[in-house]
Amino acid sequence: MTQTKKNTTVKDIKYYSRKFWRLFFYTIGGIFLFFLFASWGLFGAMPSFEDLENPESNLATEVISSDGVTLGKFYNENRTAIKYQDLPKSLVDALVSTEDERFYQHSGIDARRTFGAAIKLGKDGGASTITQQLAKNLFHGEGSKFLLFRMIQKAKEWIIAVRLERQYTKSEIIALYFNQIDFVNGAVGIRSASKVYFNKEPRDLTIEQSATLVGMLTNPSRFNPKRFPERAIERRNIVLKQMVRNNKLEESAKVLLQKKPLVLDFHPESHQEGTATYFREYLRDYMKNWVKENKKPDGEEYDVYSDGLKIYTTIDSKIQEYAEEAVKAHMENLQKEFWAQQKNNKNAPFVNITKAETDKIINQAMKNSERWRVLKADDKSDEEIIASFSKKTKMTVFTWKGEKDTVMTPLDSIRYYKHFLQSGLMSMEPQTGHVKAWVGGINYKYFQYDHVGQGARQVGSTFKPFVYATAIEQLGMSPCDTIIDGPFMIRKGRHHVTENWEPRNSDHKYRGMVRLNQALALSINTVSAKLIDKTGPEAVVELTHKLGVKTEIPVQPAIALGAVDITVHDMVAAYSTFANQGVYVKPQFISRIEDKNGNIIYEPVPENHDVLNKDIAFAVVKLLEGVTEHGSGQRLRTDGGGSGDNRWTGYPYQFKNPIAGKTGTTQNQSDGWFIGMVPNLVTGVWVGCEDRSARFNSITYGQGATAALPVWGYFMKKCYADKSLQISTSEFEGPENMTINVDCIGKSRYSNGGSSGKSNDSTAVDQPEEEQNTEEFEL
Fold it and tell me: How far is CA 629 from CA 8, 277, 636, 656, 757, in A?
């Protein structure tokens, strides 16, 4: 009996033993086959060797200034790749200490944590290694809530992690990981996160800032330092504690760092905010055609929003900053005066137009609005849409003191925005054509029309140098030649004039015999008219087009007074030809474009051609110097004691160096211009309202010398104060053997002209100029 029981027990042991080992090997084999089938892609596609070699990332295209500053990005996801060597040690230490303490010991899977991962399957309770998290982010995203699918995903994740470890070094895996994480608030990847939250490059992050960003990794939304600062601080301190535990930080340092407050320098990166917004939009539009003409080696088009291009521009970040500051400083104060003048205007901001003309402007603005577009897309009738513009609604509006929440009708908001004076500024290096600054308006978020490259406006007297240049070239005249300033008429039929044209000077005075240099300095209309009568308007139009002006110009004598619409972009390019000894250089705003791997895929070829010989170009420069010596630009030489506009920007100008320039004021002072040149920088400024019927009541504030010149003065003061920019204070370079007489009074510099010092800017029509108002404005 006992023997039988022993035999039975032995048999049972053998039976169960065989069953156990059979089950064990089946399980091992099943797991092996499960992973094998997963690696073969039977449970879904697995990344190929090429995929692992070049993991797809939605990389933003960077727009980079000539001095290496990122001006902005074009992106679907705001991600910019960064290399391991650009990561601070504190950031790497914080990551490894918090997310994967044995990162440098395992080969993609941490055996100690695998069992925990199996228990928490479907929850992913922090068990994955950094490499596994990278695999998930790169190739299959968020885990499934269904157990079986999650097991399949986990298997694929492990396989990919092992392959990544074979393909990349530990340092490369960390860099890839940091480049993939979404830190919310439009920041994808560590470089974007560093810029958005702390406005610095990752290499400049402090230890506590590194800990804050690493602390977000568990749940970026929950530990968002912008929305939940207290949670972010608590999580940051846990990261610092982990760094101490892993011997990456001293206990004493941790104690001090944990006491520090959370200090953000929040700079969300968007297409509508930041530096050079108008230029970036112009560049984005340019790139639409560029990708069609410059394709990848395989024939596909580059995707500006995801291919991680680097567009190196000619914009100088400092010059751009000073230009934006100049526009803001002057326009904010000029706007105060504009508001004051409109208080008693029942049809504000429009002047001298009928109700029908006003209605036409407002109705067109309604049809151009985003509200109209959206409601039209919803199949609303025109009557319903128009009615909606009269219903009060909550909205946020632009003011010079910041955004303001208010309640008004969309119709009232249209009229409100029509009040705002706009501005355009472009600055260019004449010898190279490199555009150094581009300010297309006062605020891109609210006013997206670009007044540099997009909006052509009447140029007034800034057109006159083209007439003088033609006269010097065609008639062999010099700045020292004399001409009579007196009543003058071009009769009907001559130069295709349809009726007698008798231009008058802006001050209704005549000076008799004057030299050409005096005539341009004082912007005498009759002299410009006489010169175009002698050369013929055809010659002036031809020269103007050679100077790079693309606008269609009417072949009429009236263009001598500036009745022509031209962009700031083209005017700056044209004036630059004079500063560049008669050689036109097409404005250039891109220096090169690189792909995401740093390969140069585009370098523009400079375009230039001879327009004028050196003698003529220099003669025009000397004429324009006279404008700033004692003409309508003379206030650039003052100490700020006479004219209130100097104090609008907080600076007396007091420029002593050679400056060539020209002011311009147009019909009813709707447009104010100033284009100023020094040997290595030409800058044009335009100021006016969106609609020409919205304007100052008098020329006191509407003239170019008051509306536009102060922007130039403030801008150049800032540029000269920054010695690193090396903006020239030297004389303009003239030909060695000058054949045209420019030394009218026996000196190299023009210092006489019989002017009383009063600004005498001309207009495109007959309009008296008034003395500058001396009311002081405070910044």
Answer: 121, 35, 8, 10, 10
> What's the confidence (pLDDT) of residue 391?
95
215 contacts 236 by C-beta, under 8 angstroms: yes
Task: Say if CB 464 and CB 560 are below 8 A apart.
Answer: yes
Res. 6 pLDDT band, cuts 50 70 90:
low
10 Å Cβ neighbour count for 249?
Answer: 22
Helices (H) and strands (E) in the chain, counts: 27, 18
| β pairing state of 435-439 and 421-428 | antiparallel
Q: What number of residues does the chain have?
A: 779
Q: At what angle do helices 525-535 and 464-475 cross, to 10 degrees?
A: 40
Q: What phi, psi does 694 have (nearest 5°)?
A: -95, 115
| β-sheet bridge partners, residue 408 | 393
User: Residue 17 corresponds to which amino acid?
Assistant: S
With beta carbons less than 8 A apart as the criterion, state whether 414 and 367 touch: no
Distance of CA 291 to the CA centre of its chain: 20
Locate all alpha helices (DSSP H) within 643-748, ordered by sequence.
Answer: 644-648, 699-702, 704-707, 709-721
Q: Is there a contact between 653 and 636 (Cβ–Cβ < 8 Å)? A: yes
| Distant-in-sequence, close-in-space partners of 197: CB < 8 Å, separation ≥ 6 | 183, 185, 187, 209, 212, 213, 225, 226, 264, 265, 266
> Is the backbone peptide bond immediately before 261 cis, with ω within 30 degrees of 0?
no
Beta strands in 412-470 (DSSP E): 421-428, 435-439, 457-458
Pairing of β 565-566 and β 457-458: antiparallel
Q: Is the pLDDT of residue 639 over 70?
A: no
Q: Which of 624, 592, 645, 626 is nearest to 771 (CA)?
A: 645
d(CA 425, CA 453): 10
CA angle 263, 267, 273 (to 5 degrees): 160
Q: 45-56: string of b/e by CB count within 10 Å (b at 16+)? A: ebbeeeebeebe
Q: Residue ranges of the alpha helices (H) in 453-508?
A: 464-475
Res 273: pLDDT: 78
Q: Are strands 482-485 and 512-515 parallel, antiparallel or unpaired?
A: antiparallel
Return d(Cα 160, Cα 141) in angstroms, integer.
Answer: 13
Structure tokens at 304: 């500006």
- Residue 418 CA to residue 366 CA, distance in Å, equals 12
Element at 673 (helix H, strand E): strand 672-678
The per-residue pLDDT for range 367-399, each reduced to its tens digit, is: 999 999 999 899 999 999 999 999 999 999 999
- How far CA 431 is from CA of 58, 314, 335, 713, 733, in Å, comes to 39, 13, 36, 22, 12
| Cα distance between residue 221 and residue 215, in whole Å | 11
Locate the DSSP E strands across 409-461.
Answer: 421-428, 435-439, 457-458
Torsion of CA 120, 124, 126, 127, to 10 degrees: 60
Closest by alpha carbon to 129, among 156, 151, 106? 106
CA dist list (Å): 671 to 91, 183, 341:
54, 46, 17
pLDDT digits (tens, 9 = 90+) for 43-69: 455 555 454 556 656 788 999 999 999
Q: Chain-wide mean pLDDT for the chain?
A: 85
Tokens of 736: 């060695």
Amino acid 128: pLDDT? 81
